[in-house]
Amino acid sequence: MVGEEAAERILREVRQTLAASGFRFDTDKGAEWAKILGGSDEGIYSWITVNYLLDRTPENTVGTLEMGGGSAQVAFVPPAPPPSTTGTCKAPSQPVSFKGRPLPLYTTSHLEYGLKKSKAVALAAFEATHNLTNNPCFHAGALDVGVPFETRSVQVVGAGDFDGCVAALHTRLQAAVSPCDCELCTYGRAVQPVAGPPEYVAFAFYAERTTDIGMASPLTLADIRAKGTEVCAMGIDEVRKAYPEGAVKNGVATDLCYDMAYIYTHLSVGHGLHNAPDTRISVVHKINDVELGWCLGAMFAELSNLS
């Protein structure tokens, strides 16, 4: 998010610090030993972490969904594609070793489709189209909304309409998916598997905007829509009273209408769950008291490479 030049400058300092730390660090391979983790790698490692902690077998894995601030990841082992799914309409996958067995894992990272970045893009679009008044994505009333990753805010007069916000977001996200020459595409018109897993484990902002505000897990798209409709109907004072300071992690109560509408639309359009609305989504922060993320999976992947 800081740009390539700034990122490389930071990495050079990190490599110099590691080289002088006394720990083993190969300066000749510094660019490999200290680098920015790619989005696909993050998705793979998180998937390994979740399925290992759940003690799943290679035949019975779950998919993973992670929503960050700047990007969003998905990973799962798709069912065997139909024989007709070949060529340009065959979704990409890569072999991943899990419990000694290679599995064809579909994984992708949607850069700039994280919760915070999506809001910055949406606010810019609302400004450009003069749609900051009677805006469906924000709670009813006048509100200064901070623009993520910037130092400014914009004044919005909200209308608090979940379905209206979904419609506005759907138009933008669908434009990034269509036209699709295959049965199912994601952002950038990239092919994704037509059928996903029957169950996902979702974490990060997915948890902070669902179970952390009182929703029960597992949940479905319909559950998110119902809660989003309820929350968006609250005015500014009402939502602040319902979710006082500290209740909404990494955000504030007046973020909730937009955030829930975006999560719903992203799952529907970006991941194609409109085709499988009953898909079970287990939302958690930890499994067996272990915080979810990519670190544990990365360790297993590196050990697998060593062996």
Automatic annotation (TrEMBL):
<dbReference type="GO" id="GO:0005524">
    <property type="term" value="F:ATP binding"/>
</dbReference>
<comment type="similarity">
    <text>Belongs to the GDA1/CD39 NTPase family.</text>
</comment>
<keyword id="KW-0378">Hydrolase</keyword>
<feature type="active site" description="Proton acceptor">
    <location>
        <position position="42"/>
    </location>
</feature>
<keyword id="KW-0067">ATP-binding</keyword>
<protein>
    <recommendedName>
        <fullName>Nucleoside phosphatase GDA1/CD39</fullName>
    </recommendedName>
</protein>
<dbReference type="GO" id="GO:0009134">
    <property type="term" value="P:nucleoside diphosphate catabolic process"/>
</dbReference>
<feature type="binding site">
    <location>
        <begin position="69"/>
        <end position="73"/>
    </location>
    <ligand>
        <name>ATP</name>
    </ligand>
</feature>
<keyword id="KW-0547">Nucleotide-binding</keyword>
<dbReference type="Pfam" id="PF01150">
    <property type="entry name" value="GDA1_CD39"/>
</dbReference>
<dbReference type="GO" id="GO:0017110">
    <property type="term" value="F:nucleoside diphosphate phosphatase activity"/>
</dbReference>
<dbReference type="InterPro" id="IPR000407">
    <property type="entry name" value="GDA1_CD39_NTPase"/>
</dbReference>
<dbReference type="GO" id="GO:0016020">
    <property type="term" value="C:membrane"/>
</dbReference>
